[in-house]
Amino acid sequence: MSFNTFGQMFRVTTFGESHGVAIGCVVDGCPPNLRFTVEEVQAALDRRRPGQSRFTTQRQEPDQVKVLSGTLPHPDGGLVTTGTPIALLIENVDQRSKDYADIAGAYRPGHADFTYDIKYGIRDHRGGGRSSARETATRVAAGAIAAKVLPEVTVRGALVQIGDIAIDRARWDWDQVRENPFFCPDAATVPLWTAYLDEIRKKGSSIGAVVEVVAEGVPAGLGAPLYGKLDGDLAAALMSINAVKGVEIGEGFNAARLTGEENADEMRRGNEGRPHFLSNHAGGILGGISTGAPVVARFAVKPTSSILTPRQTVDRTGAETDIATKGRHDPCVGIRAVPVGEAMMWCVLADHLLRHRGQVGTPPVWPFDAASGI
User: Which residues of 307-335 are buried (b: 16+ CB within 10 A; e: fewer)?
Assistant: First the structure.
């Protein structure tokens, strides 16, 4: 099985299965002399960790991270990167493989069971194996390292919709995101989601969601006009998250409803003579290159495929059967996708910053000298 690595300069290779001994990742290309602590990586993992509320899977994984290589102790505490590959390991301690015995030969509708089996001729039915969302813990760990490459940037994510219940953006408050189990920026929506998800959970069903990730402080000039588009790589990174079925940047699909006058982000002279955008319909990216405005991305997460309601399917022999999935599953997998989306944003931005330095070095000074003809 190939294609376990993403990124070009800041590269992350993940390994491990849902019910294996451990999962982990190797971060290659990280610059030397970046200081971080294990506690910082652990804090990121704790935000994604399962079993923290009744609205997520009750699998009790502590997700304790171990740093195996690529660092040295810093004299003032913590670790410092050496520029060599950083290996991060997370042991699995709460697998219940017996819960999946009944589906060993049958395919769960909506899951990767059939496609995985038809491609490789073998699959790990225990929680999905390599295709399990358990793998995303390693991305979160890598994202915590990537954040050290861009100390001037802030990345924050929030859940903005569950099912057909969306937040009121007029009440958006980033401080609320850490005050509820949904990563919700709108306090008034929390009780609505609570009642809705309790009903979904008691039925043994699931529901989809929309996550929004915003990166502020991103320097202008990251990306490239054609095959190295910042938004193209960001969309691919977010789409690679398990259960994601749609990605949009800025206005996204809503841009199709706008006129040219409404969609264009007008500019005026801002601080230090730099352009100031009066709106951000582009989501901080124009022509594949960052504008300096906040980078805004949203992604849609489908309902969890493993549900208790019997569904029609076939087994490996082609025989028709019905299937109901036992085990511990998220009634809304989109909740824990918030820190995963943040991590993928961090990794893409770190990768593009290092690419930019390698190709351009020091960027041009704005404003340009009109006499130079540039």
Answer: beeeeebeeeeeeeeebebebbbbbbbbb
| Model confidence, pTM | 0.93
Burial of 288 from C-beta contacts in 10 A (0-12 / 13-18 / 19+): middle
Contacts of 12 (CB under 8 A, 6+ apart): 5, 6, 25, 26, 27, 28, 138, 139, 142, 347
Closest CA to 222 of 358, 368, 29, 31: 358
Tokens of 137: 């813990």
Please say whether the beta carbons of 41 and 31 come within 8 A: no
Reference 223, options 239, 236, 210; nearest CA is 236
Contact residues for 287 (Cβ-Cβ < 8 A; gap 6+) = 225, 229
Say which residues have a Cβ less than 8 Å from residue 121's Cβ, sequence separation at least 6: none
Concatenating the DSSP letter of every residue in 327-362 gives: S---S-TTTTHHHHHHHHHHHHHHHHHHHHHHHTSS
What is the distance between the alpha carbons of residues 278 and 341, in angstroms, rounded to a whole number?
27
141-199: pLDDT as tens digits:
999 999 999 999 999 999 999 999 999 999 999 999 999 999 999 999 999 999 999 99
Residue 33 corresponds to which tokens in the numbers above? 């002399």
Answer whether 83's CB lies under 8 Å from 10's CB: no
